[in-house]
Amino acid sequence: MTRLWNAVSVIGLLTCLVLALWAYKSGILDSVETLQAFIGKFGYGGMAVFVLVQIIQVVVPILPGGISCLGGVIFFGPWLGFLYNYVGICIGSMAAFGISRVMGRPVLYKMFSEKLIQKYDSWTQKDSRFFKLFALAIFFPVAPDDFLCYLAGTTKMTWKQFSLVIWLGKPCSIALYSLGLTTAFRMIFSV
């Protein structure tokens, strides 16, 4: 099963690369305005597809979350990009929690490396400690959030506790990702 998840991730990444190459050759990536005009042609459908991609990229990590957050800001502007990132990532996080709640610890071993699991497994030894560490990790954009959402589903954390941390903690990390990566993008490409 781990090989299947790895294959899905590789296929997803290759698909993203092929689409990026196609967009580049088609002139869609000539400027931010050109890209936004292309996405704008799809109306609400473009927004819905982006939110769906954000949900999927949490459940099946294909790209680093920061890259897709940057995409939201570039595609839709800072405010709508933030909103679509937030909604998609939070729904995806809830789905990851639910999947691991149903499937248990085996899902961790099917999707993530043993090294990553061992690194964070000590957090789960005390439920109150895990809740605090999880909340901090979700608030700051440096931890493997997707994995931690799956890990949380294997603990005694309640849906209410999880939802509270995700819906209140994600705005800060998404804003930091979006702001930091947008600034870096503009510096690199002088947009």
From TrEMBL:
Protein name: TVP38/TMEM64 family membrane protein
InterPro entries: TMEM64, VTT_dom
Cell compartment(s), UniProt: Cell membrane
PANTHER family for the chain: GOLGI APPARATUS MEMBRANE PROTEIN TVP38-RELATED, TVP38_TMEM64 FAMILY MEMBRANE PROTEIN
Transmembrane keyword on record: yes
Main location: membrane
Similarity comment text for this entry: Belongs to the TVP38/TMEM64 family.
Membrane topology, record value: Multi-pass membrane protein
Superkingdom in the source lineage: Bacteria
Pfam families, per database record: VTT_dom
Organism: Dorea formicigenerans
Annotated ranges, domain VTT: 65-178
Keywords: Cell membrane, Membrane, Transmembrane, Transmembrane helix
GO cellular component, one term: plasma membrane
Membrane-crossing residue ranges in chain numbering: 6-24, 44-77, 83-103, 133-153, 165-189
Keyword set includes Cell membrane: yes
